[in-house]
Amino acid sequence: MSMLIWKKKNNAKHLILFIHGLKGGSDTWAVDKITSFPQLICEDEDFCDAFDIACFEYFTNFTNTYGKSRNLLARLFTSLTKKEVNLPVDELSELLVGECQINLSDYSNIIFVAHSMGGLIAKSCIIKMHERDLSHNITGFISLAVPHSGSETASWASMVSSNVQLGDLSVFSKETDSLNRRWVKLSKLPELKFLYGSYDSIVVKASAIPVQVSAKESIAVQEDHSTICKPKDRDSNVYLIVKKLALEIHNKTELISSSPEFKDDKQYDNEFFVLKMIVADVHSDISKHAKEYYYNAELARNIFTSDRDRETLSVLYRKIREIYQTQYHDSIANHNTANQLLAAIHKKIEDEDKVKLSSLLDTLDSVHKKGMLHQLANKLDRDIIWSPDTSLDSLNSLRGQK
């Protein structure tokens, strides 16, 4: 039986998955009987039909009672219904991993919106998917008052209760310590936002914002531990933050995967990467293809603008420059033509696309990476040229003629 409660399911490409915390459920997100966080998104026209909305719901209760049967044997053997118990974060995340693999694998992007203990479940799920090398589509994680370093309130409560979930939420618990240590080792992270309530006395700022989180990924909101997950309307800051991240992830995917057809209307004729090809007498058809690659790379550069995106692109540019340098030296040694050099570099980029040039930006393919080569050549310097005879004077002279 699935643990997903669907609020909107129209076979969309993207999913926003809400994950509640301790002693929570559907009411975690509800302001009243009419208004809830998922419902606000479902009825937001800006989302159109791009997103499905669901909630991951699990059993959680402060008590450890299983019913009113007279003894253990009666409880075990007289009921036909399953006895739900408080499972630890580790086991709850196993259930979420199962849902991701079985019921959610067809989505292009999944964004976790998690409150309190739900954030630890989400975090554990992301870690396990990476550690087990499982293919996944979790591209966003919004942490709402999540006790990444535990909660003092849970610590006090765990002293008078044997609830395993309270133990996981305690300050310096083995679970939070393990998650934090494993999290920082991940080579690939989704887009992140960590929100804390300025009036939250249950999960204080120091716990809601992990030490390694940058200032741009952490946001204060004028809420407490309960209201931070209950935006009253679409003008609430929490709602706007979730909406902004969701639409950014959606737009990146859509623009890259369905970029407009390139039509050469001579807009790149004066770019230096084109002039370098002309000076090197590169075949006109190859130059035309290079313009298309350049166009796609420029599109990608305009889309991936966050600090993490720029850092990832910077690493890619360095790797592509290394490929160019190696192929250029080989071309000189073997007296290859400029056409042969360019073809060899493009072929090498294709070969390395999923290996050396593998990127955290999954939507970038070899077309964009070939274009990144021409972006690097689109400068006055001589770092990337197609012929040993190329000179700055010849480039400037040719540009003047145009």
Automatic annotation (TrEMBL):
Alphabetical list of SUPFAM superfamilies matching this protein: alpha/beta-Hydrolases
A Pfam family it matches: CTD8
InterPro entries xref list: AB_hydrolase_fold, ABC-3C_CTD8, DUF676_lipase-like, SERAC1
DUF676 domain sequence ranges: 10-157
Gene3D superfamilies: alpha/beta hydrolase (3.40.50.1820)
Localization: Endoplasmic reticulum; Membrane
Superkingdom field: Bacteria
Keyword ATP-binding: no
Keyword entries, A-Z: Endoplasmic reticulum, Membrane
GO annotation, cellular component aspect: membrane
Principal subcellular localization: endoplasmic reticulum
Residues of the ABC-three component systems C-terminal domain: 264-387
Annotated PANTHER family: PROTEIN SERAC1
Descriptive protein name: DUF676 domain-containing protein
Species annotation: Candidatus Pantoea gossypiicola
